[in-house]
Task: structure prediction
Amino acid sequence: MHMNEPKVTVLMPAYNAGRYIGEAIASVLDQSFADFELLIVNDGSTDDTVKVINSFNDTRIVLINQENKGVAAALNAGLGCARTPFIARFDADDICYPQRLKTQYEFITAYPEYSIIGSGADYVDADGQFIFSHHPVAHLNEEIQQLKYSVCPFIHSSVFYKKDVILNNGGYNEHAYTYEDHFLWANILKNEKACNLSQALIQVRLSPESVTIDEKWHSKKFLSIKYATLKKQRITEAEGLELFQISGKHHSPKIKEGAYYALCGKKFLVNNYQPEKARTNVSRAITLQPFRLDNYLLYTVSYFPERFINWLHRIHPEQV
Result:
């Protein structure tokens, strides 16, 4: 292994991730493929994130500190400093399975015509309890190319891509607040070959601290701007500012915690039928947001048979 010339950069943005980042780092350091650098961009954390990072004694870890600018800016800073041609995206609260880097590196070097490789993922809650396994919406490049612009083809923390492809397309758009990855794919996939591996290579943690929440908790105005910009593949600074302002008003810690419990409840019904766990989570969501009628609907539906719930989800996926 040549530590001065790693083959892969694991790019991890981190903001107030002290609770989970130790597990995330350990999972990267334990990879069966060892020829990498772990590039962590600390995005102005105010908790013990940096202290946890510095507790690891491994020369493969590279730490960059910046003032808080958001995920997209942190990723762009990391891309500018990465020493390798391949980037493995990863989040500071997720877990890499031991074969993740080996599997994706061997694939992209065996099939160099591919620029982006995603994978399946196992989802867990804030305490690490398994919720469900996610299977990609499309696997083959032909399937991915046929997806509607409104469908994000990858789990962001699972992707492994060629750095130059992203940089040559301007990197992550910092105005596409909370969907910088989806906006990127909408702009570049028409010219690049991509695929999703079926196996789960990472473990994604759902938590109240996560930036991304269930879409139904976004305001109509936010969603209108998001999908309009995805469709036209352009976003202005003014639109980005409006997205940020809307999120600031509607994504308080209480709302995000309610969204988290509602999402866990929904997944325990639709993706991993465990109605009692679903009701426990939805009850917490109702306590936090008692005026959201959709949570009462979800709680009521939890008493119906699995077959009926699956049918209802197919008919009204936005509700159940």
